[in-house]
Write the structure tokens for this entry.
Amino acid sequence: METAAPSAVIVAIDGPSGTGKSSTSKAVAAKLGLRYLDTGAQYRAITWWMITNGVDTEDPHAIAVAAGKPAIVSGTDPCAPTITVDGLDASGPIRTKEVTSKVSAVSAVPEVRTRITELQRTIAADADGGIVVEGRDIGTTVLPDADLKVFLTASAEARAARRSGELKGKEATDLAATKEALIKRDAADSGRKTSPLAKAGDAVEVDTTELTLDQVIECVVTLVEEKRAGRK
Ligand SMILES: Nc1ncnc2c1ncn2[C@@H]1O[C@H](COP(=O)(O)OP(=O)(O)O)[C@@H](O)[C@H]1O
Ligand SMILES: Nc1ccn([C@@H]2O[C@H](COP(=O)(O)OP(=O)(O)O)[C@@H](O)[C@H]2O)c(=O)n1
């Protein structure tokens, strides 16, 4: 793995669904002039490809065999992140309920993780000015030498309320069903064998339940600035 330029800062933001990883990471990256990578979008993209190509998402062997086939490309501008699969814009289709319900099974397959992890490390190494990478295993597995690791948490109630607010008007949803689906996905992501959702020992944990998004962004910006100041 190549190392980024000396002034570059690598920030890893992990945590369960609805804790504010994407919103926080995008805003922090935009404020500090860093690139941004949504690793969940990559796992969603490979899941979408499996579904559209008729791969049984309950068959880990079939998933493993197909894992190397789709070409997944992530654009890392925090103001306009993009994701394509085999040249097609996947940003809409990866957010459907079907993909959301199947992504944990696909992302648990070791061959999928190896492939996507390599992609993520290449993108981080190529980000000259630094990057904010968000996901589930960034601090523990993908970028264990990140300059700053943040682990976001929030109560299941707060996370479900945030998610169902987001889904309103798009796909029929209710709060209890959203909460149940979210807890199920957390359990699958935390319980898998290969690089599960986990807080790195050296990560700073931020409970966002009672914080506004702006407060979380401010908190992470301050943590990055402290790291940068400490390196001078
Ligand atoms: N601290 C917060 N307070 C209230 N709403 C928030 C907060 N953080 C994020 N949100 C909202 O919750 C939803 C989920 O946030 P998102 O950043 O997508 O979470 P994650 O990437 O962890 O799944 C978004 O609609 C976002 O605007
Ligand atoms: N680094 C990562 C990121 C996501 N994922 C998987 O991808 C799924 C979707 O991630 P996401 O970040 O888009 O999920 P949300 O929190 O945005 O709902 C997760 O539930 C995990 O199964 C992963 O395994 N490892």
User: Anything to note?
Assistant: Residues 33 and 129 are 8 Å apart (CA to CA).
